[in-house]
Every structure is written in structure tokens, then in C-alpha cells.
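Hi there, hope your week has been kind to you so far. Please have a think about how the structure follows from the sequence. I've dropped the whole record in just underneath, so have a look:

_____
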Amino acid sequence: MSDKSSEIEDQEPGDELFEHYNYIADKGQEKLRIDKFLMDRIANTSRNKIQIAAHNGNILVNKNPVKPNYKVKPDDEISIVLPYPVRNLELIPENISLEITYEDNDLCVVNKPANLVVHPGYGNYSGTLVNGLLYHFDNLPELPSDYFGRPGLVHRLDKHTTGLMVVAKTENTLTHLAKQFFDRTTFRRYQALVWGDFEEDEGTVDLYIGRSIKNRKLMVGYPDQDQGKHAVTHYKVIERFGYVTLIECKLETGRTHQIRAHMKHIGHPLFNDLEYGGDSVVKGTSFTKYKQFVENCFQLLPGQALHAKSLGFVHPKSGQELIFDSELPSYFQEVIEKWRRYTSAKS
């Protein structure tokens, strides 16, 4: 009863934290409950997690959702979406100030500030968003009965990227949200200030993204899937300032550093993006006064000028569509205002 094929979509997770497995049952496959079939093949999971996935429509057989008691048959094509396994780290609650945009017994929406790493990892074992959320949840007057003792992440933002994130409190919510992110039914809009002007008012970057051979911390564009993962970013111009442009980005995929890498590839690195070449004068004049103006703008920003402005999804329990919007951070707005004044004075 071996598999013909097995594939993990996100062995090295991007901004979206879920895994997608595919299997094809052997021709000699005996009839076996699908939860048992998958338990034998997926590491670091449990029968309960698989059953929750099935109840949320995350398990498909021949492209149709099935229940946990479905009996696998020869040549069945099976796929399952699961939240990414929790990192095996001790999580310590920390009293970190958080801006909670929305909260109920199943989930919360957080407006993440700059300079805050999302979850513990190498070099960041404390002081993260997850540490702060764990403290917040532990000190709530009431938690859901099926709270699983940690914040559940299905997506993340870079350290210096600000904006909205949804966090699950229960296994059921986490699994349901993972499927929405995988199916690309969530609503996400980013705003970014990028170098240069665009010929068109809107466009699309369709490019495979993979880790740079020269620097494994950076993502670069590749011509085919052998070197990267498919990534699609739609953008449209919000406001032009000549040397820089304020744009809105809509993601079809959630790859690591997707907007930053895509904009760099088409010659429009994000303003003040240290890793992707946006932290020096990319467009403009050589005048000292202009260089000083740009440097003054840089000093207002903690990192790249990127903000996750809008977030929408279907609530796993109520079925209601929820859409949230957030203001650009004050320093981001101040930089935009400085460019408005500069452009107005220049014209």
C-alpha cells in the first residue's frame, strides 16, 4: 500500500503557513478509512487534526470533499491542506503591547507594528508577536473550551512590514483558515511606496520565486518552476510622485518576500528596503539637497515602506464574511506627505 506520489507544497513555508499534500493510492490499495490512510503518511500529525481537516472540507478525493470515514480505493487521487506544524520551541508569554483590531472566541485580528518578528525562531526566541499573543490569550477572562494553548498562524508578515494578520485560537478555526488561504479566497490588499514611475496604471508580475544562490535570505525571480515557486502579484498605481510611486498590491500567492522580490525584479524596489536595494537613491537627481531629502525620508521609516492594509475572510464558525481595514502608520503617512510637498514644489 505505497503511494505513487507524495508532494508537500510548502516544505519551506512562505508568508502563508500551511502544507498541501497530494497522494495517489496504489492499484492494489485495500479499502481503508482515509483518516487512517493519511495518518500513516503524514508526519507530526494526529487523527484528530485529520478529522478536523475533513470536517472543514480540507480533504479531497478525486477533487470532491470527503468525510473522515471515507474508504480509500485503488487509484484515488487524494489531497489535504493542513496548518503548518508548530515549531518545537518553548513559548513564553510576554506582556507585549498589541493592537487588537477584532477578537472573539475563535480568532483575533492584529494590526502588527514594525520591528516585531511574528514568531520565535533562530535569533528571535522571545519578544515576538506569538509571545505577546500567548500572554494576551492567557489573561482573557474566558477562552474557548477547545483552545489549544498557543496562537494559530496561517500567514505572517516580515519584521518591518506592518498591518493586519488573523490569528486562530482553536484547531478548527486554524484548519478552516488554512483552507481559505490555500484556495485564495481571502481578501488581502497591501500598500507600498516603491522607487520609480510606472508607464501603466496597473499591471501583473507573474514570476517564479526562489531563494538566491548568493544570499539564502533573499528571494529572486526565476524563469521556471525548477528553481522557484509560482508567484503572482497584481498592482495598481494610487499616487505618483515622479521618482517614487504609491501602489496597491493584491496577492494571488503568498510567497516569502513576494512583493519585495517582485518589485525589485521589475525595477521598482520598495522605498527604504535594505535587503532589496531600496535604501539608496534609485531614481532622481544627483543634487545634494535631493539626496538629503531622501535620507530624511529614510530616517522616518524603520524598514521597507510596506503595509498590509486590508484583510478579509469568512468566519469559520458564523460563515459571515469579515473585512478589516487599517490606516497606514503615521511615519508612513508622513513620508508620503513629504513626497507630496516635494512634488508640488518641484512642479
